[in-house]
Amino acid sequence: MKEHQKLSKLSLIYCTFFGSGLLPKMPGTYGSLAAMLVAYLISLFSIINFFFIFSVILFFISIPIVQKAMKQSKTSDPGWIVIDEVAGQWLSFAFTPIAILLDHPWLFLVGFILFRFFDIIKPLGIQSLEKLPGAWGVMSDDMLGGFYAGILLALLAIHAL
Predict the structure, then answer these.
(1) Domain segments of the chain: what residues?
(2) What confidence tens digit (pLDDT) does each residue in 141-151 have?
(3) How far apart, in whole angstroms, are the C-alpha atoms of residue 161 and residue 24?
(4) CB contact set of 159 (below 8 Å; sequence gap of 6+)
(5) Structure pTM?
(6) Cα–Cα distances in Å, from 25 out to 21, 51, 65, 80, 115?
(7) 142 vs 93, 105, 114, CA distance in Å?
(8) How many other C-beta atoms can be found within 10 angstroms of the C-beta atom of residue 85?
(9) Is the pLDDT at 1 greater than 90, yes or no?
(10) Contact at 8 Å (CB) between 84 and 55?
C-alpha cells in the first residue's frame, strides 16, 4: 500500500495539489508547474497582485494539514506532498506587478525556473530550514526559495522591460 493512500481524499487532493504530486518521477516540478498555471489563471482575473497574501495564507493553513498527512502516512517530507511548492511558487510571483506579468507572460516561466532552481539547489540558508520540525521544515524551505525567486524575478522584470 502506498503511504499516501492512508489519507482522506480531501487531504490527499490538498497535499498533492489536485493530484499533481502523484505524477511519477518529478512530483515537485509537477506541483510547481500546476501552481504556475493556476497563478496565470488567477492573474487573468486580478488587477492587484495577491500572491503574497495567497502564499502566506496557504503556508499557515498547510502546516497542520501537512503535519497530519505526514503522521498518517508515517513519512517525513514525502515527494507527493507538493502544497509547499505551490506556496513557494506563488510567492515567486508576489513582487512583480500583475500588469507586467500579463504583458509579458514568459515571466511566469522564468518565475517557475527560478523557483525550481532554489527549490532543488537550496542555497542561501534554504537547506537549513528543512531541518525545522515536521511540517514547518517541509513548508519553510519552499517559502524562502519562493522569496528569493520572487526578488530575482522582480529585478529581472524591471531591468528587462
Answers:
(1) 28-42+50-67+75-160
(2) 999 999 999 99
(3) 37
(4) none
(5) 0.94
(6) 10, 28, 24, 10, 18
(7) 13, 23, 12
(8) 29
(9) no
(10) no
